């Protein structure tokens, strides 16, 4: 259970850092304001951040739903040759976060049931 929590936290932070770095330095925003794009990209992650950091199993379960948006965005970016590296990194990190959060959620709920005597 501990390893899945560490991997999910690390991939969560790496995904947020990747989105921030890409938006600030590499993305062609076509005249859009940087802070608006960053806000749109990071708000779903920021809503989950307190629960992920504290190890809340429900927050990890919700992360499994939310991270699918980033996976789709990464796959779409990977199709474009100019954004291929960013796309594969985003898709890979979101897949890693999905798997780690899913395992943490499952193992945490099993552990809680065991403690309750079920």
How would you characterize this protein structure?
InterPro entries: DUF2069_membrane. This is DUF2069 domain-containing protein. Keywords: Membrane, Transmembrane, Transmembrane helix. By secondary structure, this protein is mainly alpha-helical. The chain has one domain (2-116). The chain contains four helices and no strands. It has helices at residues 2-26, 34-54, 57-79, 84-116. The longest helix has 33 residues, at 84-116.
Task: Characterize this entry briefly.
With 118 residues, the chain is mostly helical. Helices cover 86% and strands 0% of the residues. Helix 1 packs antiparallel against helix 2, helix 1 packs antiparallel against helix 4 and helix 2 (34-54) packs antiparallel against helix 3.
How many domains make up the coordinates?
1
The percent range for strand residues is under 5%
Major β-sheet annotation: none
Helix count equals 4
Arithmetic mean pLDDT: 95
What low-confidence regions span 5 or more consecutive residues with pLDDT below 50? none
Our measurement of the CA-to-CA distance between the termini, rounded to an integer number of angstroms, reads 19 Å
SSE pattern: HHHH
Q: What spatial form do the alpha-carbon principal axes imply? A: elongated
Helix content: over 70%
Gyration radius over CA: 16 Å
Number of strands: 0
Which oligomeric state applies?
A: single chain
Query: SS-based structural class?
Result: mainly alpha
